[in-house]
Specification:
Number of helices of chain A: 14
Oligomer: heterodimer
Largest sheet of chain A: 2 strands, antiparallel
CATH topology of chain B: ABC transporter involved in vitamin B12 uptake, BtuC
Radius of gyration of chain A: 19 Å
Structural class of chain B: mainly alpha
Number of strands of chain B: 2
Order of helices and strands of chain B: HHHHEEHHHHHHH
Strand content of chain A: under 5%
Number of domains of chain B: 1
Chain lengths: 317, 284
């Protein structure tokens, strides 16, 4: 792990905070919306990074928790009229429970089996969202989800207030994730990533650490999903599809697994790229496919890995 | 009684298609440790190419042969030029095969459009058979027989031939196999192409039963995964047994509980995972 000096860190955070406060007043509503989408996916990518980058668990079904939380938040807000203080925690609760149940099964395996099982379980969830028409609206999804209502008669209807709402929650989550990964618990996760047998020999109950990380990852993914349903005001089975799990995996790898900031940047890049490509061509699925291939072949360690190797080159042998 | 027999035959014939898919998936993983996410695409593209050949030549046999060979060739190109660079790098391999899955799926959409297509049955198997008072389409029986035939051939190749011994050596220990003078590099290409061939074979042969349609690539990939999760990665026997189990579960699930069809596949999968995490016949 490279270390950043506290002064640089503080400067970086100050600049980021100032930028975040200014943005809503300089950007047009359209671009502000795009920034919110980037932030939501940054959180989603960071939540997966906790599994892949820090614990070494390569999940291909992370959209399950994102989508489940989105559905629960959307459904309770839409049909029961719950405000954000109820609908959001309900979504988070559901995704944490699902991550717990799926974790019990998936964590019995590792490597390729883990990959396949997380994918299979998430597709089961997708199948339910797709098939249970009376509840989920099936393929058509659930339209007209209301914007978050803070209390009776006050909803975050305009773009700027929703931006601050989302930014606040995502910044808080980012900070929590940073604290989690920097804590002794986070060090244990890294130890498990490097060598499970070594950690086992040292007397750590690795299953408990992996399970906790898995549920936490699901929880933060759930928060991203609930924010996304408020943002889009719509939820469909696409939220859970394996294509979305792959997309967030791409964000993590592109940015650089195991760095938190890398996956967040990767998410911003992919969201921006999709926005640009889909505006110009209908073949954006194919072009996105090429992005996967290019990243796999030329930047398997992500942008942070690229920067690191460039820096080493410049420093000389 | 009749219902159970007929539906079982339906399930077994679909299970044979899944076996064709899963055996390649398993073989490739066993030797190269690659979890090939484009395997469903091989199935789908095989079906489309086979259909195109069928339209041109009116010959089902040519459709099966050329469709499968074309995809085998695609497999050679993929292995030689892309996967080879990422040997034993799990994450980049996953990304690469995922990207190709998207590219192939969009390419198929571009060329063949979004409408489901059906493949006409071959002339020889267009009729139904009367077995002890039950009327059953002969084509499905042919699929069952064909699947068993392929299983027998695969078993013989693996256990009884020189190339099978070389593959087994490569599976057991790649480096020692190389040191013994086995051309493991060539073996990789062959096995990957052969896996692609089998998947495409499933796609063309399955065409008359399930059709060829966008999204089939994701669908069969998922079922293929469930097959190898149940049967065990890298095991031929596991692919056959798993294929039959999933084929039967899928069919009876769809017939008996259409709303919860997926559960009839996933509940047993979860059960097997809980008891044997590496599947019925998996090693480790």
């Amino acid at each position: 792990m490279k270390t950043t000096s506290p002064a640089r860190m503080a400067l970086f955070l100050a600049v980021a905070a100032a930028l975040a406060l200014i943005l809503p007043y300089v950007l047009t509503p359209y671009y502000l919306g795009l920034v919110v989408k980037m932030m939501i996916f940054a959180l989603f990518a960071m939540s997966l990074d906790l599994l892949i980058g820090f614990t070494g668990m390569a999940s291909l079904g992370h959209a399950a928790y994102f989508g489940l939380s989105a559905y629960v938040t959307g459904l309770t807000a839409l049909t029961l009229g719950w405000n954000v203080w109820l609908a959001l925690p309900a979504g988070l609760m559901a995704s944490a429970v699902a991550a717990g149940l799926f974790g019990l099964l998936a964590l019995r395996t590792r490597g390729s089996y883990f990959l396949m099982i997380t994918l299979a379980l998430s597709q089961l969830m997708w199948g339910i969202a797709f098939g249970w028409r009376s509840l989920t609206g099936g393929d058509d999804g659930l339209p007209d989800v209301p914007r978050p209502r803070l209390w009776q008669g006050y909803s975050l209807t305009d773009g700027v207030s929703f931006y601050f709402f989302a930014f606040g929650l995502i910044a808080l989550s980012g900070w929590l994730l940073y604290r989690i990964t920097a804590s002794p618990f986070g060090q244990c996760l890294r130890g498990i990533r490097e060598s499970e047998t070594r950690m086992l020999a040292l007397g750590y109950d690795i299953w408990r650490y992996k399970f906790t990380a898995f549920v936490l990852g699901g929880l933060f993914a759930g928060l991203a999903g609930s924010l996304y349903v408020y943002y889009n005001r719509f939820v469909s089975p696409d939220y859970i599809h394996v294509a979305r799990s792959a997309e967030v995996l791409l964000m993590v790898i592109l940015g650089g697994a195991g760095t938190l900031i890398g996956p967040a940047v990767g998410a911003a890049i992919i969201v921006a790229l999709e926005n640009v490509i889909s505006a110009y061509t209908e073949r954006w699925v194919m072009l996105l496919g090429f992005v996967y291939v290019i990243v796999a072949l030329f930047a398997p360690n992500g942008l942070t890995g690229l920067i690191e190797s460039l820096r080493k080159k410049r420093a000389g042998p | 009684m009749m219902f159970w027999v007929l539906q079982s035959l339906n399930g077994i014939s679909y299970g044979m298609l899944l076996f064709l898919l899963a055996s390649g998936l398993s073989l490739i993983y066993g030797l190269m440790k690659i979890l090939n996410l484009t395997h469903g695409s091989f199935y789908l593209l095989g079906g489309y190419v086979g259909l195109a050949v069928l339209h041109l030549t009116k010959s089902f046999i040519l459709a099966v042969l050329l469709g499968s060979l074309a995809i085998a060739l695609l497999g050679v190109v993929m292995e030689r030029f892309l996967l080879r660079r990422l040997h034993l790098q799990e994450m980049p391999q996953t990304l690469l095969t995922f990207g190709l899955l998207f590219i192939f799926s969009d390419l198929a959409m571009l060329i063949w459009g979004g409408n489901p297509q059906t493949v006409p049955k071959p002339e020889l198997f267009r009729h139904s058979l009367d077995i002890g008072g039950m009327v059953y389409p002969s084509y499905r029986l042919f699929i069952i027989g064909f699947g068993l035939f392929v299983a027998a051939v695969l078993w013989w190749v693996q256990e009884g031939t020189r190339i099978g011994a070389m593959v087994r050596a490569g599976v057991d220990n790649e480096e020692i196999a190389r040191a013994l003078g086995i051309n493991v590099s060539l073996l990789f290409t062959l096995v990957f192409a052969f896996g692609a061939f089998l998947a495409a074979l499933g796609g063309v042969m399955g065409g008359p039963i399930v059709g060829v349609y966008p999204g089939a690539d994701f669908e069969v990939l998922l079922l293929g995964f469930v097959v190898v999760i149940i049967g065990g990665l890298g095991s031929l026997r596991g692919a056959l047994v798993g294929g039959l189990i999933v084929g039967l579960l899928d069919n009876f699930g769809k017939v008996l509980f259409p709303e919860f069809a997926l559960f009839t596949i996933f509940a047993p999968m979860a059960l097997i995972l809980a008891v044997r995490p590496t599947g019925l016949f998996g090693k480790e």
